[in-house]
Amino acid sequence: MRAFFSKMERGYLHSVVWIVLVALLVLLAMSWLPTLKVGDWQMRRVDLLSDLRSDSLVADEVLEVLPENEAEESSLAQAGRIRVDSCRSGMTCIDDMADDEDRGMSAFYQALEGIDTLGRPVRIAVLGDSYIEGDILTANLRQLLQERYGGSGVGFVPMTSDSPGFRRSVKQRFNKGWKAHNANDNSGYDRRWANFTGHYYFADNGAMMSLDGVKSYLSRLDTCKQSTFYCMGNGTGRVTATINGTQSQSFELNPGGHVQAVTVTGQIGRVEWRVDHAGGITYLGASLDDDHGVQVDNFALRAASGQHLRTIAEQMILDFDRVRHYDLVIVMYGLNVAGKLSSDYTTYRERMVEAIDHMKRNMPGTGFLVVSVGDREQKRGDKYRTMRGVISMVNAQQRIAYDARVAFWNLFTAMGGEGSIVRMVEQHQANLDYTHINFGGGARLGKLMFDAITWGHEQYHEQVQKGGTP
């Protein structure tokens, strides 16, 4: 009997060895197969020997696309749309590729010129993915702009959050009375109710969300002058706002198929919005704002590519523009599309142009700025190198701005180009995924963006003062 089992064990071990060898041979063979692509989706390539490849091979893979980038950049400049008259030494300036409709930065700069008589804040919407989740980067951009031009408050906040403690720029509370939807939902998602991040909410009677200003993170966030509650739909309902735990005011909700906004004013350090009667209405979010200065709204959607913007209902964009007009929309996507070996983003580029054109048609008087992806690394051998797909994506995003006739800012170059995210990790400004910045990195990049925006405004202001056409 013992001999019988010993023979079985030897046979089993022999079979396992052969299975492992065959699997290894199959995986090695797959390294030579071409990458499978379906539209913008690309299957990850199998490469068991990637860590053994030399650095020179990696450098060749990355650099072979650069001559093409330079040629396209030259062709864009020859087309006459890239306008950077002067740029301060060491700064990456905004390239405005807008046509005569001035749908690049001009609409925003015009609003800044009349900021004292506008009667509302000059508003910026930043649309992006997990790179800006938690108000990273945008919180610092907001602070710097408000310190320069005035304003206070954190701006627009969705009803709930998947990680409310992660965001430092506002203290948010909410109960279980909300049913959340967003553009990442696999089912049950209705684009009629979605705003820029695809978020919308249904409520039970008694659903509550509150927003507290914060003092210890950044300035101008502790108090504000007004809070606005946004909803949409065909039902009727009622909501009550309580300011600083004492002053309450109720509002009847009757959107009539459009976006409705109700506002409370005062010296607001904390506001609670409670749904007394849900009434079949769709809910969007609430804001903490000033009545002047600059406001920056963070619209982050984790894992987003930006293509969902094409499907936002025209009525939603028109209505939201009516109740909360933006003078500038900053579009920051791409990291969820850029891959290790990808170089052709033609389909993605075309769809993002469609998305921007869709917003432009329904947001008259709004400027648009495309911001490129930042550096993202992959490990080859014992070193981290910039993904080839990142360089190709930056090139594609510049072309998106060119084709959409809007402005472009090269974040990849501004942060230091190839290898910059490695240096930021070493300086504790980025995460160990060598992709995402942290709050320290957000402060650094927010300052770079602020410098580029305000430098552009200074040049615009000088031309206005001289009586010229910006």
Can you characterise this structure?
This protein has 470 residues and is of the alpha+beta class. The protein has two domains: 46-129 and 304-470, 3-Layer(aba) Sandwich (Rossmann fold); 151-293, Jelly Rolls (Sandwich), CATH 2.60.120.1360. It contains eleven helices and 21 strands. It has helices at 2-30, 55-63, 66-78, 106-113, 138-149, 314-323, 346-362, 388-404, 411-414, 420-426, 439-465; strands at 37-38, 41-42, 95-96, 122-128, 155-158, 171-174, 178-181, 200-203, 208-212, 224-232, 237-243, 247-253, 259-268, 270-277, 282-289, 294-300, 328-332, 367-371, 377-380, 383-386, 407-409. The protein has a six-stranded mixed sheet, with helices on both faces. A five-stranded antiparallel sheet has the order 6-9-14-11-12, with no helix packed on it. Strand 17 (328-332), helix 7 and strand 18 (367-371) form a beta-alpha-beta unit. Helix 3 (66-78) packs parallel to helix 8 (388-404), helix 4 packs across helix 11 and helix 7 packs parallel to helix 8 (388-404). The longest helix has 29 residues, at 2-30. It is globular.
Structure at a glance:
This protein has 470 residues and is an alpha+beta fold. The protein has helices spanning 2-30, 55-63, 66-78, 106-113, 138-149, 314-323, 346-362, 388-404, 411-414, 420-426, 439-465, and strands spanning 37-38, 41-42, 95-96, 122-128, 155-158, 171-174, 178-181, 200-203, 208-212, 224-232, 237-243, 247-253, 259-268, 270-277, 282-289, 294-300, 328-332, 367-371, 377-380, 383-386, 407-409.
